[in-house]
Design goal:
Layout: E1 17-18, E2 21-22, H1 29-38, H2 43-53, E3 54-55, E4 58-59, H3 61-75, H4 83-96, H5 108-131, H6 136-149, H7 153-160, H8 162-165
Antiparallel strand pairs: 1-2, 3-4
Length: 180
């Protein structure tokens, strides 16, 4: 994985960050990752960071560089504390369209580190699902991440968006009761 001090980070776009410059509220990803390495249970910080990496069906280049760091952070947490990190790794895969797929212009070493991190994320995710308690919504998200990491992005997307698919597209009636 690339170092958090690597000079290429500013060139790795994310939501609110393009061509080496960010909007006033856009985080600088390596600075945020440094803080998460020190305080990996800072859910607020992580919750503010991850939508800049991957959201609205898009995984930005900085997400691929961040994934190996997210997996390393998850590795250091107990199973009950790593679900958000692993879900976001799965979400990057979902938004990429295919397991291991990266943008064509992503540097090879970043793409390779991303791909090498995915099998470990799958292993950690399996342990997390098997040993930690989760509510229905988090279970659904983790199963979506699992499907993505197993190479089934279409199935993963359906699980991820199950709240949308849970009502009839014709009449709007609920087809499945989802607990919140």
């Amino acid at each position: 994985m690339i170092s958090l001090d690597d000079p290429r980070w500013p060139a790795l776009d994310h939501r609110g960050w393009s061509e080496g410059r960010g909007a006033p509220d856009a985080p600088f990803v390596p600075d945020e990752l440094r803080q998460l390495v020190v305080r990996p249970t800072d859910c607020g910080r992580f919750g503010e960071l991850w939508p800049y990496l991957c959201s609205e069906g898009t995984a930005w280049p900085a997400a691929y560089a961040a994934v190996p760091h997210l997996v390393a952070i998850a590795r250091g947490l107990p199973a009950a504390g790593r679900d958000d990190y692993l879900y976001v790794v799965g979400l990057v895969v979902i938004c990429s369209g295919e397991l291991g797929q990266t943008p064509d212009d992503l540097p090879d070493d970043i793409a390779d580190a991303y791909r090498r991190a995915l099998p470990e994320a799958l292993t950690l995710l399996a342990e997390t699902l098997a040993t930690a308690e989760h509510d229905q919504v988090m279970t659904r998200y983790l199963l979506a991440a699992m499907a993505a990491l197993k190479g089934h992005p279409e199935y993963a997307e359906i699980l991820n968006e199950l709240d949308v698919y849970a009502e009839c597209q014709s009449c709007g009636e609920p087809m499945l009761e989802l607990a919140e």
